[in-house]
Amino acid sequence: MPTLNSLTADNLLTEKEILTILDLAFKLKAQKKAGKRPQLLAGKNIALLFEKTSTRTRAAFTVAANDLGAFPEFLGKADIQFGTKESLEDTAKVLGRMFDGIEYRGAKQSVVDGLAQHSGVPVWNGLTDEWHPTQMFADLLTLKEHFGYLKGLTVCFVGDGRNNVANSLTIGCLKVGVNVVIIAPKQLQPAANIVDIAQQCSQISGATYFVSDNIEDVKGADAIYTDVWVSMGEENQYEERIKLLKNYQVNEALMTATGKKSVFLHCLPAFHDLETEVGKEVYHSYGLAELEVTDAVFRSKDSLVFDQAENRMHTIKAIMVASYHQL
Predict the structure, then answer these.
(1) Which of 58, 266, 272, 312 is an active site residue?
(2) Does 97 qualify as catalytic in the annotation?
(3) How far apart are alpha carbons 96 and 117 in whole angstroms?
(4) Which reactions does this protein catalyse (predicted)?
(5) Which of 15, 17, 147, 305 reaches 20 to 30 Å from 273, CA-CA?
């Protein structure tokens, strides 16, 4: 395939591009495990533009760039004048003159699209409110590592079915032939535009797409995926979300209800115990020691959450390499 150039949204990817990047990620991961660091981006300068906080995305891009011989530069919300004294277009043009690539993590999809339009260099979406493509690649790599194949698997996302992780997981899976089930209360089901894209992908690949509010529809799932009930920027909605989602918690009974040996997936962070400030606040306010997933499931041998976290780095490496080298 030609170079990927920018990666701003999952719906812009083809099946061939997804599978090629996954193959490259396998290769780069094996090389890293063998102690090899091919300098495929030697001398390139990478801007890491963060308007939202991060653990995995920031760490993964930083280590991936260093491993490949590039120089990452973190630019936090308070570090530059982007959005306050300087427009998106002007910022994009300035950064494009100085850097060879830009990662953006923030709220608005229009921002990452604008950076790609005006910067003249590859731009990668590290998360927006609509899409989270680097997470999708890590998820698919994890599934393929565990099962040995992708086409024909069934992934069931349980919880807030209209968030960015659910959107990216849905489109990425359907494009490569993985069946997708979204189980969420009606108020938190996918937006109409996402459903339209998903149905188009389903028709092309032959994978099935199903949205339900019935928790019993987990039956037959090879993987159960969940995410936090309250995303960044929605911190005032805990009471409402708990009421809506308390019956959608991923627990041992739900994992058993799949009727097969299913794996558990989560993009992290996860509220599965009381070892965080937020977890303690929720417990004191609502009496819940676990939210979207129980500690037993999170720590079980069927949980692949830390494989997913590591694979963020390997797939981000592949995405960046694909932006500069024809594959």
Answers:
(1) 312
(2) no
(3) 11
(4) carbamoyl phosphate + L-ornithine = L-citrulline + phosphate + H(+)
(5) 147
User: Average model confidence (pLDDT) for the chain?
Assistant: 96
Cα 221 → chain centroid: 20
Please indicate whether residue 37 is annotated as part of the active site: no
Choosing from 118, 135, 222, 266, the catalytic residue is 135
CB 100 within 8 A of CB 46: yes
Q: Is 227 noted as a catalytic residue in this protein? A: yes
**Are residues 275 and 19 in contact, defined by beta-carbon separation less than 8 angstroms?**
no
Catalytic residue among 10, 67, 100, 105: 105
pLDDT in tens, 247-258: 999 999 999 999
Known binding-site residues for L-ornithine equal 164, 227, 231-232
- Report pTM: 0.97
The reply to whether 312 belongs to the active site is yes
Domains of the chain: 10-132+311-322 (3.40.50.1370), 135-309 (3.40.50.1370)
Q: Contact, 7 vs 125, CB < 8 A?
A: yes
Please tell me the distance from the alpha carbon of residue 111 to that of residue 125, in angstroms, as a whole number. 10
Phi/psi of residue 13, nearest 5 degrees = -85, 150
pLDDT band at 1 (very low <50, low <70, confident <90, very high): low
